[in-house]
Amino acid sequence: MKKSRVLGLLLVAVLSVGTTTVASAATKAKTLSFTAEVWADNWFALYANGKKVGEDSVPITTERSFNSEVITFTASYPLTLGLVAKDYIANDSGLEYIGSPRQQIGDGGIIAQVRESKSGKFVAATGPKWRTLVIHKAPLNQECVTSSNPTMDCKFEKSAEPKGWSASTFKDTKWPLATVYTEEAVGVKDGYNSIKWNSSAKLIWGSDLKLDNTILMRYIATGK
What CATH class has 31-221? Predict the structure, then answer.
């Protein structure tokens, strides 16, 4: 092979590598700071593009926990938001206040909104376009609410979180859409009114406000 041809091939290879590097740098997503405001009955964890970025400061083991949280995190568009939402239950029976005169089936509800921290641009809010997957439902036989031994008598359905469910690449098209509830249905209190909610932010849950106890939720914000 002639020397000039060898040099030519090397030059093409170098230019190709340089072009690839420049293209990759140009398409790299810009990282931004976001602020999320969340109120839950009773507990939540927040994910962004597959990474857990915050959770309710009050443990799920706390009865009657109703509080709002403000969480700041960094991420890039498209922004895949994930929520683990839990209603307080004493155990798999799905009941609360077990053994007391107040033994009952509780209910859930969550609302959230996200903005770009610097610009204040509104990015996303919980609503009917969110996807949901119920992974704990109880009691399936509601008459067990009066049982003196609900742990034995109440039936439930429980499943594990799908692997990678909060990641951007996860396919959620088969998940049901969220159900929107009124403030009266959820019974908002303690911290709910401390946040100025955007008009598009809605209280959501699974299709059954009382029996759906643990729910995974997803939404993708494009930033456009």
Answer: mainly beta
